[in-house]
Write a structure and sequence with these properties.
Layout lengths: L2 E2 L1 H8 L4 H12 L2 E9 L5 H4 L4 H17 L3 H8 L8 H6 L10 E4 H15 L7 E5 L1 E4 L4 E3 L2 E3 L6 H14 L4 E5 L4 E5 L5 H12 L7 H10 L3 E3 L11 E5 L4 E2 L1
Antiparallel strand pairs: 1-12, 2-3, 2-4, 2-5, 4-10, 5-6, 7-9, 8-9, 8-11
Length: 254
């Protein structure tokens, strides 16, 4: 297979928004027939999903203080504070809530995606309604098999130091190369080589070892789902369209 030098990849992708960068990446991967997109709607506020008692409110109050001090994700902070009020069981039920994309995904031929279709769908998506458009890791290949485009969601506030750490983690998890995007509050990453289902499961397990730099809750929910998803548009409480800020080495197959 043809390989593209990383400096050429950088020239083509650096600074691009996610839809355009993904279209170029998909074209160079080769062998993909169809990708899948899904609409993601944010969950209702926690207090509207479960009945919160005094114990739950105390845990949440302490968790918010811990998050402000440490930068830990909200649910990690909640779980760390839970022993101080071990009867706040309603929070345990909320932790387990998973919203699946199964049955809601829509296919898009890679030919259409590369020819501007992915960008058009993102530009036309009504983010004012509170939802965002996501791309799923699962793809259908020309040999009829399903494979995955590896994806990562990081929990690291945007800064020069955080980006260096994100890149170092991505280099270890995605040795064949990757693109790093700033998502507004943190970072996303896409690998530059497709993986099989078994390789995908191993990838997710290895990524978990880097939590909380890689978002632990994201990895848990994507493992339950059996595939990953990352946001391509604003919406869902996010005003920033992810944009490429770094391209890592390795080889991208085309």
């Amino acid at each position: 297979m043809r390989t593209v030098p990383s400096d050429l990849l950088t020239m083509n992708l650096l600074g691009l928004e996610a839809p355009r960068a993904l279209a170029i990446l998909l074209a160079r991967l080769g062998g993909i027939e169809e990708i899948y997109l899904a609409e993601c709607r944010p969950l209702a506020p926690l207090q509207k999903r479960i009945a919160l008692g005094d114990s739950e409110h105390r845990v949440i109050e302490r968790a918010l203080k811990q998050r402000a001090l440490t930068g830990l994700p909200f649910w990690d902070s909640v779980l760390l504070e839970l022993p101080s009020s071990p009867d706040a069981f309603a929070l345990l039920d909320a932790v387990m809530m998973h919203v699946s994309f199964r049955g809601q995904e829509k296919g898009l031929s890679v030919e259409s995606a590369i020819d501007g279709g992915l960008e058009r769908l993102c530009n036309e998506f009504p983010t004012t309604l509170g939802a965002s458009l996501t791309i799923l890791s699962e793809v259908r290949c020309s040999d009829g098999l399903k494979r995955h485009l590896p994806m990562l969601d990081f929990h690291a506030f945007t800064s020069a130091a955080s980006q260096r750490i994100v890149e170092a983690v991505a280099e270890r998890l995605l040795p064949h190369g990757a693109i790093i995007l700033e998502s507004g509050e943190s970072y996303h990453a896409y690998g530059a080589q497709l993986v099989s289902d078994s390789e995908f499961r191993q990838f997710m397990g290895q990524a978990m070892l880097f939590a909380p730099i890689v978002d632990r809750a994201y990895l848990a929910h994507q493992s339950i789902e059996g595939r990953c998803a990352l946001r391509l548009t604003s919406g869902g409480g996010k005003s920033h369209v992810p944009r490429v800020v770094a391209v890592l080495g390795g080889r991208i197959r085309g």
